[in-house]
Hints:
Blueprint: H1 10-19, H2 27-47, E1 57-61, E2 67-69, H3 70-85, E3 89-94, E4 101-102, H4 106-109, E5 113-121, E6 132-140, H5 151-154, E7 161-169, E8 173-179, E9 182-189, E10 194-199, E11 210-212, H6 223-233, E12 244-245, H7 251-261, E13 264-267, E14 278-279, H8 280-293, E15 297-299, E16 316-317, E17 319-322, H9 324-334
Parallel strand pairs: 3-5, 11-12, 11-13
Antiparallel strand pairs: 1-2, 3-4, 5-6, 6-7, 7-8, 8-9, 9-10, 13-17, 14-16, 15-17
Residues 66, 121-124, 214, 249-251, 277 line the site of 2,5-anhydro-1,6-di-O-phosphono-D-mannitol.
Amino acid sequence: MNVNRKVLTLDEFTIQQLRMFPNATGELSNxxxxxxxxxxxxxxxxxxxxxxxxxxxxxxxxxxxxDVKKLDIFANNQFMGxxxxxxxxxxxxxEEMDEFVVFDDEISNNSKYVCLFDPLDGSGNIxxxxxxxxxxxxxxxxxxRGKPCTKEDFLQPGRKQVAAGYIVYGSSTMMVYATRRGVNxxxxxxxxxxxxxxHPDIKCPESGKVYSVNHGNFFQYEDRVKxxxxxxxxxxxxxxxxxxxxxxxxxVADVHRNLIKGGIFMYPTTIDKPKGKLRLLYECNPFAxxxxxxxxxxxxxxxxxxDIQPTELHQRxxxxxxxxxxxxxxDTYLNQ
Length: 336
Ligand code: AHM
């Protein structure tokens, strides 16, 4: 059989990166490979969602007050499970869980990292076969190694992330992750069951034509946000347009498309959600890190997302994220 040695798997890629740093311990590479393994397990269940009884509400309400779907619980257990049994992670925080979890055993207490994740984002789309995703971020712990991790490890500003990534379960399944050195995308090759490097060194185009926002909330947005959305609709050939509106309602899919093709994604505050809908630690921070490494920008409308000091695990935030030039233009409206 001919094996294409030019195509690197996720495992080969992380090992290749590790070999560039002779003093590296390999803990981060291990953690990223663990995430890839859990993603493959979740992908199998997501693909079967229309077939088996795993589909549908689990009948409980999560800490955010939203219905929990069975697949959310399955995904949560898979990601928590690989990290608990790995050697790199001292504890996790999950969008599905009220409190962070400390893996209080000798190996975990000596691990360098903690991980935060949203195991299944856009879960309202499961029932209708629309793309959903997983989002994760990795921080170096600030608590003393050798002891259980603490809340301070999880409440670090986003700029302290060591790595962040997402998996999009879509027409194909992709894992994209960023470290300070770049953003790389891996597509799951079902013939070998491996993520393979398909999008090396992703850069977010400086400009784009897509704006993504829930128009149904338009009359609940601040006037300055409405003015920007109005301007997007009025774009024509003479002023950099026309723009197109695209909104899937799965943040992972929406931001993934804009990262690759250029665009801006917005989830502003509304009258009903004065603090915003998206979670700072599980959704905004990881995407802000990925998009900034790729050359884009992310703010809450006033401040860089990555500079916000979190005070709670499940804190919410407004989010504006995307191509640099579009974000700069947005600022001219928000700063009026
Ligand atoms: P979820 O955690 O319940 O899945 O909600 C998060 C999702 C994001 O993926 C998406 O961008 C947003 O909620 C859509 O919200 P809305 O339907 O209010 O536009």
